[in-house]
Amino acid sequence: MEIKGPGWFAAGREVQKVLFLSSDGGFRLYFHLCVNANRRTGRVLIHYGELATELKRSRRSIATHFNELRALTICRVVSAAVNQHSRTEVEICDDFWPYTKEPLADDPSEWNGYRTAIRSMLSKRACIDCAFTATDEQFAAECFGRGVALEEIEQAIALACCRKYAGLLNGTDNEMIRRFSYFRDTIEEVRDPDAHPKLPELLKQRILSVEYYEEKWRASRRGTAGVNVASATRSKTKKTR
Questions:
Q1: Could you tell me the residue range of the domain that residue 124 belongs to?
Q2: CA 214 to chain centre
Q3: Residue 11: count of CB within 10 angstroms of its CB
């Protein structure tokens, strides 16, 4: 039996225990947390407002169900939000988490380093004009909570930027990338081994060529080079033979 996609979750006896222990609303919240948690740590970053929207519940009911899960020691708070724009990190307790957890120190510098690395990656590409707003930080926090590796984000940015430069050079696109969430689908593509049969080779090629395409686009804006990416690619191929 094959799994349809990369976002699957192992719902075993741990999940069944919560089904009988908690209320309907509590179980729904618990399962939502499980599906979005990092499989290696059982942790997820949450925002009450977003949970209320996603689960179609009021913030008050989300808080009630969350307190219920905590009282039943189904989950615990690792780090609480410091303001309304921040996120709370939650961990599913071992008895209700179907995976074996990896040791993880409660070190806030890990998140700070993760966020800083993403901002650095975004600042390197000329086709990205991202001010890294609260919305961008929320998406970064989502990636962090899901365990998306920085290497995967770097690969996704390179792949998406190459595609963006192709559109800019060919005149089919004239918009800059202004949101980190622009890379959401590409990150999922990079993380899904079945997304493309030759994805590893494609990623290597795009990572090596993104700066080449970027310079071609810069030159085209200065009016010193042609704007057709196909001819630019053929020229590069001839030089490397």
A1: 108-240
A2: 24
A3: 13
Q: Let me know if residue 86 belongs to a domain.
A: yes
Q: At which of 96, 129, 156 does a domain end?
A: 96
Which residues have C-beta within 8 Å of that of residue 17, sequence separation ≥ 6?
95, 96
Residues 119 and 229 in one domain: yes
| CA neighbor of 75 nearest in space, from 32, 24, 119 | 32
pLDDT in tens, the chain (241 residues): 455 555 566 777 888 889 889 999 999 999 999 888 888 788 888 888 888 999 999 989 999 999 999 999 999 887 666 555 567 888 899 899 988 876 654 566 788 889 899 999 999 999 999 988 877 887 888 888 788 889 999 989 998 999 999 999 988 988 999 999 999 989 988 887 666 666 667 777 777 788 888 999 999 888 744 444 444 444 444 444 4
Taking the CB of residue 180, how many other CB atoms lie within 10 A of it?
25
Report the number of distinct structural domains present in the chain: 2
Q: Assess whether 143 and 70 both reside in one domain.
A: no
Question: 152: which residues sit within 8 A by CB, 6+ positions away?
Answer: 187, 190, 191
122 and 73 in one domain? no
State pTM to two decimals. Answer: 0.51
Strand, coil or helix: what is 31? helix
